[in-house]
Amino acid sequence: MPFHDFSTYRAVDRLSQLARNPHDLTAANGLSPQRMSSFKSSALGFDFLYGTQRVSDEVLTALQELADEAGLVETFIAMKKGAVLNRIEGYASENRQVLHTASRDVFDAQPLAPEAAAKAKAELAKLQVFLDSLEDGRLVNERGELFTTMVQVGIGGSDLGPRALYLALQAYRRPGRSVRFIANVDPDDAAEVLRELDLATTLFNIVSKSGTTLETRTNEQLIRGALQQAGLDPSRHLVAVTGEGGPMDDPARYHTSFYMYDYIGGRYSATSMVGAVALGFALGYEAVIELLQGAQAMDCVAEQTDIRANIPLLMALLGIWNHNFLGHATVAILPYSQALSRFPAHLQQCDMESNGKSVTRAGHPVQWQTGPIVWGEPGTNGQHAFYQLLHQGTEIVPAEFIGFRSSQYGADVEVEGTSSQQKLTANMLAQSLALAMGREDRNPARAFPGNRPSSILIADRLTPRTMGELLAMYEHRIAFQGFCWNINSFDQEGVQLGKVLAARLLDRMSAGRGNGEVDPLVETVLRDVGLV
Amino acid sequence: MPFHDFSTYRAVDRLSQLARNPHDLTAANGLSPQRMSSFKSSALGFDFLYGTQRVSDEVLTALQELADEAGLVETFIAMKKGAVLNRIEGYASENRQVLHTASRDVFDAQPLAPEAAAKAKAELAKLQVFLDSLEDGRLVNERGELFTTMVQVGIGGSDLGPRALYLALQAYRRPGRSVRFIANVDPDDAAEVLRELDLATTLFNIVSKSGTTLETRTNEQLIRGALQQAGLDPSRHLVAVTGEGGPMDDPARYHTSFYMYDYIGGRYSATSMVGAVALGFALGYEAVIELLQGAQAMDCVAEQTDIRANIPLLMALLGIWNHNFLGHATVAILPYSQALSRFPAHLQQCDMESNGKSVTRAGHPVQWQTGPIVWGEPGTNGQHAFYQLLHQGTEIVPAEFIGFRSSQYGADVEVEGTSSQQKLTANMLAQSLALAMGREDRNPARAFPGNRPSSILIADRLTPRTMGELLAMYEHRIAFQGFCWNINSFDQEGVQLGKVLAARLLDRMSAGRGNGEVDPLVETVLRDVGLV
Fold first, then answer.
1. Is the four-CA dihedral B509, B510, B516, B517 of positive or negative sign?
2. Is residue B109 exposed (0-12), middle (13-18) or buried (19+ Cβ within 10 Å)?
3. Is pTM, for the whole model, over 0.90?
4. How many pairs of residues across A and B have Cβ atoms under 8 Å apart?
5. Is-catalytic flag, B353?
6. Of the residues A442, B46, B160, B464, which has the fewest C-beta atoms closer than 10 A?
7. DSSP element (H, E) containing B258
8. What confidence tens digit (pLDDT) does each residue in B376-389 have?
9. Domains in chain B, ordered, with CATH?
């Protein structure tokens, strides 16, 4: 696999030249109907429109060259086959394979990473038995009642992805089944969730790969206390998703344990048991399979070398164009779907934790920008909030719109000749066009500069299958960008220093602990804020 | 009031010079205990620590000079007294006063804007009667039962602020009372909320100043349909918050109407009836009064001319230092409080809709950066998500931490010698220190550059009163920045173009509508995405 520095590619030079005079969307014919139709790619359930990006045919050609020169697809396929990509050459690093794609490579007779796929299949079989036993009454509470609620207890990747998917698909949940989430070490997070629950009919799914995550361990202890106080037996109410053989792999404490493996990073674990247990509980096993089928289908689309046939790759390259060549620091994810309300938060983690790096895979400081700041909220809500800045602010925000032709519930109302769903999609398209076109006005406060880049991704309906496609699309877009920037997108060394300092502060805060030597800075800050 | 261009201030020159060599937090003694103690301000319930910003005494002196030269406090006091600040000189504009502070200037005998304060008092009196009648059974449903749920139906400022405050304070809600929210025109938003409700005991609070907001009108119609289908009388279940004399001020359709006034912008309306009705329903009238008292007290703090005594002003100036002089495009709001989970989304609107502008109050294009991109999620969750980029990414993100010494519920657990609340606050302080200090390491992937700016805001406990203080603190920080950039922070002309284009698309999508002429671009885009 070619691991070269981003700055050494010929296509990067070419793109730098092209970026001096990027396509002007406000010019005469800058946004023609022909352009809109021609800058469109389709794969599986999705159409992707990018005529509203500031790209020309020359730019697309150079982006294709960049993809080829950097061997992005080649590296991606190597990843799927189990290459040890989570690594920094010459330095201590995790040295792991990156095999989240194996968690859904369970439909082909010949999976690319057979061992990991076999493990994924075994966990799915275990999940099916577990869900059946919840259904047929073999797995019930102390009083012989069925469980109705599952609380997922996890943080980061064990929370954001599963939560985003659950909210995305809760329209399809089975009658009488629901899922809640506890993540934060803030005791008010657990208190607020527990306050509303009937503990007797609640299962808690404790999710931590290492089994040592501070927040999750703490919340588990709080939950065990609450169950005991209610006269319930924690071992009947707790299941676990954790590393095989780790400290949480303990049948005495969890009546069922599902396994996750070190070759799947937390932020890529939504299609492993980390997401599948809660989704299966809420939606049923079939919906989990559909989600995985969608993701797996997109995993195959991402193997195409033609960027116009490979939406995740094209999205990655357009993002690089906006970030590295046009200089935009952020990217906004704007789903026109209330069900996707937390999908931007999931992508925020997946992208920023993957690509917020400053060291190459060879251990050298990067000399180019890596991952952007990712943020966003659903439309149309955002139109009444921060879109003012998108249209008329001094910061340019590349926007990625995501929408669907049909609603999930189908409970719609026609007002002034159009349905709510039509209003929703019309607004999405209108925003993309407005950002691109702008508008002149003799009142300067009512003029719009336009020429602001965006793209549109649209599918028929948000279902388990399209959700799987969408999830994998963004996962691979992130991976392709990391490959291109020559960074390790699969570690997270940047979280360590805060942990070390927090431990030092907690040593001082806990009575009778610490080694006696008190750091004067720690002492002062704790005193200044009134915590000691 | 001095309305000068930002670039003309002497202090701006001075700050540009100082920004060439900003304070280095990683230098020897760059983050001393003395510095931490000295760069601290306190007001009301809050301590504000900013030793972890890249400022020196010289920078603070220049920021004070900027505040004085630009007359920021003078303009603020004029605003509170009713100056017509929502205006662009020489061009058509809203030409309105900006009097959200009057909505809580109801405790002094001599309010600064007597007429607006009197109106606010009258609405509060109306609210008290309304809440009493819900309590004592004068206001009940068709079957004589008490109402238990209120659904707030509004979007933008009628949603984000009230929702953020409700989530912040729901720990204090009255037994059996809760609030839900419907905002999006996405029909799945309403469908999901309505699915869970007992309509018979639900009140719907329809909030729209103009009475013409598309999303809110559409959702109201959907709700009326659902009530009728359930055999319920909509006029018994709907209340309104709207402009006096507007299309929604109609006793035949809403059994109670509360008023909002055009001198309070949506994003500043959380302390008016827009927020007070739902909060009063959930928490009781007294909690609303405490919220207003907190906000009003901060409104007075913001009148101080000494920047070290005026936290909102100091925050505004530090933000300007980071944005205009150090060049950071975004600011992250990071509350270490799950209850504040949606406060960043509220501030995202309040800030970006206020200051995402490119035209001065004199109608000239700005020649400097205005409002930054505001985003954020609660800690410790974010630590397991996007903090990787904050610590080791190539984008620098100024961070604003917000925390509390005590939890709301007081339901805590001690694990390894410290409580969850201690872990929460220790992590917050540790993150601020880690961003500032960095750490050298011979493994480049484990090295932290440090020198990344942040600040800490901390209070005892998140209560209605401290929430009011915090809300007003950020409102005024935003206003001070807008005054300094010489922009109109109180209009939102940038939302218009999208509306116009959406209407054009909907004309084409609705059968038998439109004027017959079809815009070829609109036609193509609709066809390309399969919507016609």
1. negative
2. exposed
3. yes
4. 521
5. yes
6. A442
7. strand B256-260
8. 999 999 999 999 99
9. 6-95+302-492 (3.40.50.10490), 100-293 (3.40.50.10490), 494-528 (no CATH)
